[in-house]
Amino acid sequence: MLRNRNVTRRTILRGLVAWGVAPFSLAVGRDPDLLRFGTTPVFLNDRVETTRRWQQYLETVTGKRIQFVQRGSYGEILELLVRDELDVAWVCGYPYVMAKDRLTLLATPLYHGKPLYQSYVIVPETDRVTQTIGDLAGRIYAFSDPLSNSGYLVPRIELLSRGTSPDRFFRKSFFTFSHRKVVDAVRLGLANAGSVDGYVWDTLATQQPEAVQGVRVAWRSREFGFPPLVVRRSLAAGEVVMLKEAFLTMGRSEGGRDVLGRLNLDGFANEPDSIFDTIAQMAHTVSTSRT
């Protein structure tokens, strides 16, 4: 597992190899009829049928072939985007604000009618004492991804507000690279607590309640801009318009509504970039902090 470290613009754009992201290429040459859609296990872990139906929907409405490309971390997906080896990706607000000069915001999911979500701190149900991350000094803590807002940036800011950092505050911390695996780590006793995407937690609790059995939410953060869909800045304008329309109109077709139901989303919206300003401010605070 990776140890905690500050994530800066230079780290993301130039130092991905240091996070264990090996250089690679998806293909030699370009197929004009193919669009490559990047995801990570943060969202679609073990969701093969959902991915298949989403692919089918997008191919129907765009007339293009859609290739889903899953990688193990946001860092890997971001590397492919900035190297123009992906066309569209579902990322987190944190990597988006750190690399927004290389990306274009396409659409933002709507959850409970809003383009917003929260970070949760989760603990075993047997822990009836913990109310905030500040109650977990000297414990073992699970983060999701170094570029996750809910799974890493928010808890980093919470600790920074207390004048400390993960390395100093916890006895041990580690990354799972999946919100589901953070839940598993807490449920199985591998960690005393962890930070997860509230949307992912709520979806698990609704669709797979056994996955969250024995774990409870101890704390909920304020709301932040929901992890967005982005495209590479160099993608042709016509393809950007086509993809945006495909996502914004998902609720108008039976196939689109089926995918939204499986994703536990209300739809996608054309939201202003400003909904990610708070994340950008937190990212700047962490990158300039000496704690």
Describe the structure.
- This protein is α/β, with parallel strands linked by helices and 291 residues long.
- The chain folds into two domains: 9-113 and 227-276, Periplasmic binding protein-like II (D-Maltodextrin-Binding Protein, domain 2, 3-Layer(aba) Sandwich), CATH 3.40.190.10; 116-224, 3-Layer(aba) Sandwich (D-Maltodextrin-Binding Protein, domain 2).
- The chain is 37% helix and 20% strand.
- It has helices spanning 9-14, 41-44, 48-62, 74-82, 93-98, 149-160, 166-169, 179-187, 198-207, 237-248, 254-263, 277-288; strands at residues 34-39, 65-70, 88-90, 103-110, 116-117, 119-124, 140-143, 172-175, 193-197, 215-220, 224-225, 229-232, 267-269.
- The protein has a six-stranded mixed β-sheet with strand order 2-1-3-12-4-13, sandwiched between helices. Strands 8-7-9-6-10 form a five-stranded mixed β-sheet.
- Helix 3 runs antiparallel to helix 11 (254-263) and helix 6 (149-160) packs across helix 12 (277-288).
- The radius of gyration is 19 Å and the shape is globular.
- It starts with 8 loop residues before the first helix and ends with a helix.
- The relative contact order is 0.20.
